[in-house]
Amino acid sequence: MADEALSRMSLSEVSEAITKRKVSSVEVVRNSLEQLEKHGETLNCLARLFAEKALDEAKKADQELASGNSRGPLHGVPLVHKDMFYRTGQISACGSKIRRNYIPEVTATVLHKLDQAGALDIGRLNMVEFAYGLTGHNEITGDVRNPWNPEYIPGGSSSGPAAAVASYLSYGSLGSDTGGSIRFPASCCGLTGMKPTYGRVSRFGAMPLSFSLDHIGPLTRTVADCALLTNIIAGSDPNDTTSAFHPEADFLAELESGISGLKIGVPTTYGSGTSSFLEPVHPEVLREMEKSLAVFRSAGAEIVQIPLPESFEICNDMANIIAGSESSSAHANWLKQRAEDYGSQTRERLLTGLLFSAVDYLEALKLRKVVLNEFLQEVFTKVDVLHTPVVPIPVPTLAESDIQENPGFIEYLTLLGHCTRPFDYLGLPALAVPAGLTVNGLPTGFQLVAPPFMESLLFKTARAYERETNWTFPELFFK
Questions:
Q1: I need a surface site. Which of 32, 418, 440, 468 has the fewest CB within 10 A?
Q2: Domains in the chain, start-ordered, CATH in brackets?
C-alpha cells in the first residue's frame, strides 16, 4: 500500500486493515515513524520517537494476529501523544526546560488503557510549556506550525497533537484541556476534539496544571475516531481522586441514529440583560456558525435561541482565578528557584496567578456548583445540546499572538478562551467540530455542549453534521 494512502486512513480504517491483515502493523508503524521523522521538524510538532521499541512491539502484534489473538480494537495501531503523559522509563519534558530530562516512575492510566486496547505508543509531541496557553507558542521548544499555513498558530496547548493529526502524521492523539487546550487547537487545525465530563477520564500520570479544571481527551480527523478513543480511555480509576464512578457507555452505539427532533440551543444574552455571549465573536466566525446551524436544520434538528443564566457571565473570570491559583501553587518552588528557566509567556501567567487571594480562590470554587445548577436548569431543561463557536476570532498569525508583539497579552488570552473556558469551569462535556474556513483560509469550528456524562449525545449530533458535509484537509504546505 502506498505510503500516502496508508497515512490518510482514519484511525478506524487502519485498525480494521491491520486486524483483517490487509496491512501489517510493522508496515503501518514504519510508515508513521518515517513520516514523523520527515515532516515533524517542519511543523516542529515532534518531541521524540520510541522507534526501536515501536517496531519491536509491531512485530509482536503481527505475530499475535497470525496466531489468532487480538488485544483489542486498536491492535497494532501506532499513536503519538502530547508530551505530558507519563510512561515509566520514558522522558516527559512537558514542553519545558525545567523537566527536559524528567523520567517518571508511573504510567498514565490513559496510556495503560490504550495499551490494553492494543495501541502502540511510538512517541511524544510538542506542546505549550507546561500546557499553559492557547496559542501554541513555546519559547523553549519553538512554536508549532499550523499545517494549513505555517505563519498561523495551530492553537494550544495541545499544539503538537493538533498539527500531527491534521497533517496525517498520527491517526489520533491525546491532549489535555484546562481552558480549551483540546478544543481550541482542534478548531484551528480542522479536527474533532473531545473534552469529556470532568472525572470521566482519569488524569493519573498526566502532568497536572490545574487540579480542579484539567480534562483529558482525544483529537482526531473524524467523529467516529474521536468516539472510539474516548470509549477506550473513559472509566473510573482509583488512582485519580476526582474520577467519577459513572456507568461506562459505548459512545459508538448510537453514532448513526440521527438527530430528528433534537433541540440545539444557540446562546443569546446573559439573563434578561443586553450583554450577549456572542458579542466578542468575529463576523466571519458567526457566518460559519450560521452555515453549520443550517446543516443541523436540514438534518432534522430544531434550533432554539436561548438566554444563558446571568451567573454564567462570571465563568471566565472564575476559571482564570482557579487556573491561576492552582498552577502558580504547583510551580511555586520553581518560580523561586528557576524563574529564568521559564519562557516569558508562561512565567508572566504564573506570576499573575500569585496575585489572587485565598478568598478569591475559595469563592471561585464555591460558586462553581451554584452556576452549574443554574445552567443545567435554565439551559438543559429547554434544549438538548448547546451550540457555540470554539475560537471567537479567525485563527491569528504567530506574530499577532506573540507576547513580544502584543502588550495586551493576558487580555488577548482571555478573549481567545471566551467560548471554551466556561465549560472547563463547569466540567461539562464539550466537543469541537470543524465548520468551515474564514477569509484567511484557516479553519474555524463550533462546539457542542451537553449535560454531564452525555458524551454519546455529542458524538451522535456531530456525526449527523459530518454526514451532511464534506470536510477536507488542506494540501499540506510542506508536501
A1: 468
A2: 15-233 (3.90.1300.10), 263-468 (3.90.1300.10)
